[in-house]
């Protein structure tokens, strides 16, 4: 499993507007996204093969071609140059081509991969559940490696400190035993219990909440929260949150959350505000961690039984041959 053969999220779908190319970065590669005249999204290296100008400064023609801002060369979806305005009769040969990347849309995001591979998109089971409403939060630009951010997401023992009064309390910091098993895409941690003062937007009282965590790809994870019966004010509350991270550089990441919630009434911004509060509590701590890369040698940092999900994540990354954002 190599980083470049994975699908990476690069932008909100809605951020790629018609006729407006968008510059993004993944794995230190500048990429331009644009929509053709049919609305399909495409990705090319953000560097014109003629004289190196940024294609993202150009425009999309009415025919759905990407036009370079410098000399107006036009490029089709697969990267083929179709028109050189300085030589209108010239038919560009196949070698006149911009570097092309595969692109697709899912989970409210545009996904790109740098090299062909066998992996599919990270699975998010709740996406297909019509009883749950889906919406995105982010992007957040974070000065931390993608694996540090995943590991923070799997970590329950920081709740009473970083999220005191929200997801945890200094009065109830003990982490009970939980189970961790490896899976083909990462790991599954079940039976993770926490006492939470305000476990979600609708909490009116503290609740014992059971979490399941799943690492679904090297830079993607899903948590599912199940409040214990009778301890929550809102019956039937269910929530599943996917964390999707774009590794921009080894130590910079762009982060989105995909929420799947049973609440169809609250406005988007209210649901996003809760997640925003939680993540902006995490962000300064994440950005303070050194080294910024995630050390895969288990002797490099200290671990306890409460950290066994993160230890399993480090083992998975090492076995997968992941090199970006780790050390
Ligand atoms: Fe793009 Fe010349 S640099 S057309
Ligand atoms: Co946190």
Automatic annotation (TrEMBL):
<keyword id="KW-0411">Iron-sulfur</keyword>
<protein>
    <submittedName>
        <fullName>Aromatic ring-hydroxylating dioxygenase subunit alpha</fullName>
    </submittedName>
</protein>
<feature type="domain" description="Rieske">
    <location>
        <begin position="7"/>
        <end position="112"/>
    </location>
</feature>
<keyword id="KW-0223">Dioxygenase</keyword>
<dbReference type="InterPro" id="IPR036922">
    <property type="entry name" value="Rieske_2Fe-2S_sf"/>
</dbReference>
<keyword id="KW-0560">Oxidoreductase</keyword>
<keyword id="KW-0001">2Fe-2S</keyword>
<dbReference type="InterPro" id="IPR050584">
    <property type="entry name" value="Cholesterol_7-desaturase"/>
</dbReference>
<dbReference type="Pfam" id="PF00355">
    <property type="entry name" value="Rieske"/>
</dbReference>
<dbReference type="InterPro" id="IPR017941">
    <property type="entry name" value="Rieske_2Fe-2S"/>
</dbReference>
<keyword id="KW-0408">Iron</keyword>
<dbReference type="InterPro" id="IPR044043">
    <property type="entry name" value="VanA_C_cat"/>
</dbReference>
<dbReference type="Pfam" id="PF19112">
    <property type="entry name" value="VanA_C"/>
</dbReference>
<dbReference type="GO" id="GO:0051213">
    <property type="term" value="F:dioxygenase activity"/>
</dbReference>
<keyword id="KW-0479">Metal-binding</keyword>
């Amino acid at each position: 499993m190599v980083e470049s053969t994975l699908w990476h999220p690069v932008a909100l779908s809605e951020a790629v507007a018609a006729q407006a190319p968008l510059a993004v970065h993944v794995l230190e590669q500048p990429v331009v996204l644009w929509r053709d005249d049919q609305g399909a999204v495409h990705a090319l290296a953000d560097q014109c093969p003629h004289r190196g100008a940024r294609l993202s400064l150009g425009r999309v023609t009415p025919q759905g071609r990407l036009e370079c801002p410098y000399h107006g060369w036009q490029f089709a979806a697969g990267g083929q140059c179709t028109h050189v305005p300085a030589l209108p009769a010239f038919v560009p040969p196949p070698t006149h081509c911009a570097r092309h990347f595969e692109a697709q849309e899912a989970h409210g995001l545009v996904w790109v991969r740098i090299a062909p591979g066998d992996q599919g998109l990270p699975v998010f089971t709740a996406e297909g559940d019509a009883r749950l409403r889906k919406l995105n939060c982010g992007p957040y630009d974070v000065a931390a490696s993608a694996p540090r951010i995943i590991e923070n997401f799997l970590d329950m023992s920081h709740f009473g400190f970083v999220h005191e009064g929200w997801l945890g309390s200094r009065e109830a910091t003990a982490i009970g035993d939980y189970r961790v098993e490896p899976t083909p895409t990462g790991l599954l941690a079940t039976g993770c219990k926490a006492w939470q003062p305000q476990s979600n937007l609708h909490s009116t009282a503290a609740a014992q909440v059971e979490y399941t965590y799943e690492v679904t790809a090297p830079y993607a994870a899903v948590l599912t929260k199940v409040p214990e019966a009778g301890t929550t004010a809102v019956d039937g509350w269910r929530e599943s949150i996917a964390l999707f991270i774009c590794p921009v550089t080894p130590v910079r990441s762009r982060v989105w959350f995909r929420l799947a919630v049973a609440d169809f009434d609250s406005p988007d911004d209210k649901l996003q505000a809760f997640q925003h509060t939680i993540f902006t509590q995490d962000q300064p701590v994440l950005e303070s961690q050194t080294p910024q890369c995630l050390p895969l040698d288990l002797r490099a940092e200290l671990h306890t039984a409460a950290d066994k999900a993160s230890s399993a994540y480090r083992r998975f990354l090492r076995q997968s041959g992941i090199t970006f954002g780790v050390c």
